[in-house]
């Protein structure tokens, strides 16, 4: 065996992919810029408004995640969303004279929107898989079709929802539950539901750690990049371990002791704080950590409107809660660092201001 071969086969230590930090760094820079331009940018009301308005794009992004991880592409999602919204308005308005502007007409409109979206997505999928047409060509074409249809239905103008039906639908758009905007709650629920099939044995078991599909001619549904695939494998194993030991967990270190090796030769650990607690400590152990954390977050939430430090801590806790799902551990360390900085900076500033006064 040559020295080159030995070096190639030597296990490599874990590497931090700094390119993966790009979106987080960009987000932090935007937040800093927004704060410099307007001191109210980090107010709890503004942050909640931004996240609530972004939830609609987030819902589209969840569906696009499945398309992209399977090697596909969909350029028509924006036009399809506009077409679905227009069709919902037309259907609800047509039902108001007979059903009134209550939840009967609105509910049928929502179900019709889901059906139209499902048919549109299925049409794109069939053209790609059965018709053997490139996704770029298919979705570029349907982008124009959906845009033309909604422009035709609106006569080149706008479509307005009946005012009575609008009042009925309004809580779904601007309502709040426990002071949390409804769109954020809907987005969170859909994201959790979407995570289940990704982390379940039904999707993950045929795929090896290296992204190969065992005993199947179908293409791998998981990313071929080793680190991403390994992360999904740990989520699948952690979920299975939790289902087997739901109350008290399998014990600390139980997943690592399974000795599932990464490409670097190091045993994998569960890359999700919440799932790690559930799998190894069970529901009881998870609540031991979750209840104090929620109490701190709720306390800071109440102070966030008048205390910028509390607003930053609240934002960091929310970010940590989101990124501690299927995310690289480096993100979690980053958020803890931000929380520590949020606690330390005000004191340092007070000391810096007090020092010249004392002298």
Description:
The chain has 13 helices and two strands, in the order H-H-H-H-H-H-H-E-E-H-H-H-H-H-H. It has 359 residues and is an all-alpha fold. It has two domains: 38-174, no CATH class; 200-211 and 221-344, no CATH class. Strands 1-2 form a two-stranded antiparallel ribbon. The model is unreliable at 1-14 and 201-224 (pLDDT under 50).
Radius of gyration: 25 Å
Q: Tell me, what's the shape? A: globular
Order of helices and strands: HHHHHHHEEHHHHHH
Total of helices = 13
Sequence stretches where pLDDT stays below 50 over 5 or more residues: 1-14, 201-224
How many beta-strand runs? 2
Care to give the gist of this entry?
The protein has 359 residues and is an all-alpha fold. The protein is built from 13 helices and two strands, in the order αααααααββαααααα. A two-stranded antiparallel ribbon has the order 1-2.
Topology:
Layout: H1 3-9, H2 22-37, H3 44-69, H4 77-99, H5 103-129, H6 135-153, H7 163-174, E1 176-177, E2 180-181, H8 182-199, H9 201-204, H10 226-244, H11 273-303, H12 308-323, H13 329-358
Antiparallel strand pairs: 1-2
